[in-house]
Amino acid sequence: MQGAYERAYAEWRRDPEGFWRDAAREIAWYRSPTQIFTADGGPYGRWFADGETNTCYNCLDRHIADGRGGDTAVIYDSAISSTKRSYTFDDALREVNAIAVVLRRLGIQKRDRVVLYMPMVPEAIFSMLACARIGAVHSVVFGGFAANELASRIDDSEAKLIITASCGLEPGRVVPYKPLVDQALALAKVKPQHCLVLQRPQLTADLTAGRDLDFESLITDARGQDVECVSVKATDPLYILYTSGTTGQPKGVVRDNGGHMVALKWSMANIFGVRPGEVFWAASDIGWVVGHSYIVYAPLLSGVTTVVFEGKPIGTPDAGTYWRIVSEHRVRVLFTAPTAFRAIRREDSEGSFIRTYPMPEFRALFLAGERADPETLKWAERMLGVPVIDHWWQTETGWPMVANPLGIEQLPVKHGSPSVPMPGYDISVLDDAGHLVPSGTLGNIVVRLPLPPGCLPTLWKADERFRQAYLEEFPGYYKTADAGYVDEDGYLFIMSRTDDIINCAGHRLSTGAMEEVVATHPDVAECAVIGVADALKGQVPCGLLVLKKSVSRETHAIESEVVALIRDKIGPVACFRTAIAVDRLPKTRSGKILRGTMQKMADGLPWKMPATIDDPAVLEEIAAALRTRGFGGLPM
Ligand code: COA
Ligand code: AMP
């Protein structure tokens, strides 16, 4: 007999448009869509093309209209500044309205872009919703990125306004944001007219007269005034979120309004199994897609209370913080990255903090963002006594492609697998020539087009780049750039990326982008950046440098400069702490650097001498260099 998941998946397969038409009924529309999927718009088609709606209305006004204005929408808990606040839907709407008034006064119109460079404070979420309210397009940049990265996003999005804060708070360190913003504005070719600055009590930023404006005083002035929600097309952009691509130029992932709401609301109920009025916590940052989808939009669209957390799983102040929050705020479902659990496990392997906090209502833990190693997963299951659900997706898709759908039916867990495809995703594994491979065989994971609602329709002003990056290699499919296999029960196993992306502490980083920066050091002739396995962060980058012949300085000084250069140009989030000067890099006879082989060596995995290698002796030199820094370096 078919189970509930199989029935739901089969129902979608039988009539995909009917499936999403039904899901779209959960959304309030100014004009209900009659066209569900239109094949001739955008690179692969568009969802709900004739629908009109507003995302902010669906997140706030709608619940107030349903009589839920007094229910809690947002709980803010900063474990670093020991601040706690909560906002009802009424409170949140008041704040969002005030910000929307200010945006309007500053000349922000429908479709204008607003860049947010904000720490984890409620004002950041309210600013996102205020943009949505007036049809402006937000682009949130993670606070751990450097000025250069911020500047490239300001330029690519042609931002008209920046919203920032005086500082972010990292454990034991106040990170001044404003100097980074000033530097980014100096670097950027596009000059936003204004910069709204939220002054936090921990640091007051200097404001540049004429350009910088004090957030709080403008908002205080505007409180009590309302702004009507602007009706936007379902296909109009809600936001742009930049993510690492294979070059230094990040990809501007576009999210629309209609399909995004339909998919996220469906996922909250069916995948996460969370109901209106319950508390859901995604312990991530609004700078990442997890933050966009599961701190802000999915919970609020579903009338679910969301937790905005500023802190870390350990050290703020201890490995019990997550459990304090779950217990104190009655969190039903928690979503975080496996790296956070590895950190907690390392500090509290016996789970004594877990036993300190009563969590009778806690129902499930969801993990994503990187491979959930079975040991950590089993430990979490043992300690928590609730289902621990691995699920797989990407910035591009905006919501899970593969999961164990708790809201439909809990399927048996297979450790190491995020389980099965969700309705909307027809997933296959292909060899490099584009042929289907048998179950159990490793290959390229692809999704048959069209992608479901909620996935990126294209890249910001870059249809051609979108086609080249995702659609060209396997015609008729979206290339996920992940490699893996499907087992005999239809469970997917994600094994690695097929491009230069590495995953460090749940953060997606491009080693190619790092190589571009390293290559700008005047003493570096050539370089390679590889991802090396790390017990806590999953992977960390390691740079191998060939110095110019003319260089006579201490190599150690140059290595330190390269580390500082990455921090300065990409940001501390890159976690780039190791640069090793070597005499030469291993290459094929056609000149391709053998990054994969070096990575295996660094991880201490077995590796084979590539048949095409130019000079086999180079690999021994690399192994020796890696050993000096404590990396694998096993002999062949
Ligand atoms: N603003 C400024 N700097 C930031 C920052 C931010 N928002 N976020 C991180 N950084 C800095 C950190 O201070 C650190 O700087 P340092 O090199 O001076 O120490 C650097 O970037 C690396 O940060 P991080 O990756 O967080 O490492 P960590 O050693 O401080 O903490 C973990 C390790 C595992 C506890 C942490 O990475 C973590 O909580 N990971 C979970 C990630 C997550 O939830 N990802 C979301 C995807 S679902
Ligand atoms: P991001 O776009 O930052 O969400 O990163 C997406 C990438 O992270 C994916 O393409 C995978 O490589 C990796 N990833 C995300 N979730 C998982 C998971 N559950 N298991 C394995 N890898 C994952």
From TrEMBL:
Signal peptide: none
Protein name (record): Propionyl-CoA synthetase
SUPFAM superfamilies: Acetyl-CoA synthetase-like (SSF56801)
Keywords, ordered alphabetically: Metal-binding
One Pfam family here: ACAS_N
Highest taxon in the source lineage: Bacteria
Residue intervals of the Acetyl-coenzyme A synthetase N-terminal domain: 5-59
Every AMP-dependent synthetase/ligase domain range: 65-449
InterPro entries: ACAS_N, AMP-bd_C, AMP-bd_C_sf, AMP-binding_CS, AMP-dep_synth/lig_dom, ANL_N_sf
Organism of provenance: Rhizobium grahamii
Assigned protein family: Belongs to the ATP-dependent AMP-binding enzyme family.
CDD domains per record: PrpE
Domain AMP-binding enzyme C-terminal: 514-592
Record-level Gene Ontology MF annotations: metal ion binding; propionate-CoA ligase activity
GO cellular component assignments: intracellular organelle lumen
